[in-house]
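Recall that a protein's primary structure is simply its ordered list of amino acids. Everything else, from secondary elements to tertiary packing, is in principle encoded there. The following example makes that idea concrete.
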Amino acid sequence: MQKRFVSVLFVLILLFISPISALTPPPSLESQVNSSDFIALAKLSNVKESKISSNSISVTANVEILKSLKGGKELRQKFDIAFLIFPELFGKWLKAAPQEGEYILFLIKKKVKDSKGVESEVISLYEPHPYAFREYNKQLEENILSLIKN
């Protein structure tokens, strides 16, 4: 009985870890552009990070949209974001909080339910969150605009 429990526990751990470890390769830019509802040149400021465990960091920041590249009509010009970072899972992508500065920010629409089961739609960071940020440069912006036009 105990051996079966250990086997079941091991399978559950593998099922939990497998999808996470599969997230490490970054998406292609084309995939990211196609999967995002909003893409914007954004300025991050007031970035704060808090270590919440040995394996995770909580990050908050202020976002100011400088230029909309895709779907910008619904996007507020200023808003706050909060997310978690798991440094050991995403290779070179976002091992620490992003520095203050300009980034291309990828966002999605996401359906959520409140405690009463009422469903609504919110704007959220691209998932997985480490891939929601790319350091800004003019060439990246041009590549994104080219992909959006096609």
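The CA atoms of residues 107 and 126 lie 5 Å apart. The two ends are 58 Å apart (CA to CA).
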